[in-house]
């Protein structure tokens, strides 16, 4: 089967997601290609994935650069030359709606991943996102979502069950050099008494709630951090008070080797989000046998088995968050048991995801 992935922006996170899909399908024996911008992170893709770069886009596509509508036709021409059986648009760009229209005219089946059905707290593009989502849902032959709650929501809006596929978000955000030896790295984990927040420091992620919770921890050792915040962003825009002394902040872009070190050493992963759609970080934690503390928002509760692979707390509730952190950091043996259960959950879901994706592509390609 000839599968063509399309990502019109250089967004690093979206390329991590796209590379996982493309590399897996290539390893499964399919003819896999990628149409993208010249500014894509090439180290994320296997050499066998054929890459075409007809575009020079430099942002996510909701900017002045997106007014150059000829980009959609440039992408469509490149896709058509590849003669794909199915096309998968993996990330957002304002050109996607026009591109979907052009591909439908060419009678090429198209899948579109929808990552966010709702805008995040504090974003300025909420109305634009809702309009863009409506356009995608009208034009795409098929939609892939990463929360069962979102599949049910789309079905309630009138979409056919045959038009919407759900899988958890399970990709690991690492380059191929690390992925080739990651199983061995995952064997050497241990559980230091600190929780890990990993990712961009943004308001919707509830960083202020997490820091408030950190001030409520007691009875734990004081000769090291209880919490590590690792990721780019301006913490001062989210937290006006002094950072608690037992919190370590690494406000910078975290490379692969540092990320691996953090996940191998931490206690629980902590996602204190005010609102979210889903997060691949839960999969990262489980892969390295670490439990997750998440808030009850979006699809995050679907990824955590309460009391078995982690904790689920209400969003915007620092005392509940502190209670979960206190329970996790005070019992390393429990962390290890829950981490093992999380890895078992990940392995089951990852195997099932491969089957579901293969069936989705085969069904859409046959519809042509």
Description:
- The protein has 368 residues and is an alpha/beta fold.
- It is built from twelve helices and 13 strands.
- The strands form three sheets. It has a seven-stranded parallel β-sheet with strand order 3-2-1-4-5-6-7, with helices on both faces. It has a three-stranded parallel β-sheet with strand order 8-9-10. Strands 11-12-13 form a three-stranded parallel β-sheet, with helices on both faces.
Calculate the mean pLDDT score and round it: 91
Query: What structural class should be given to the helix and strand makeup?
Result: alpha/beta
- What proportion strand? 15-25%
Output the helix-strand order: EHEEHEHEHEHEHHEHEEHEHEEHH
Q: What is the CA-atom radius of gyration, in angstroms?
A: 21 Å
Taken together, the total number of domains comes to 2
Let me know the largest β-sheet.
7 strands, parallel
Q: Which of globular, elongated, flat, extended, rod-shaped describes the shape? A: globular
Q: Count the helices. How many?
A: 12
Strand order of the largest sheet: 3-2-1-4-5-6-7
Query: Considering the protein shown, what is the CATH homologous superfamily of the largest domain?
Result: Glycogen Phosphorylase B
Which CATH architecture of the largest domain would you pick?
3-Layer(aba) Sandwich
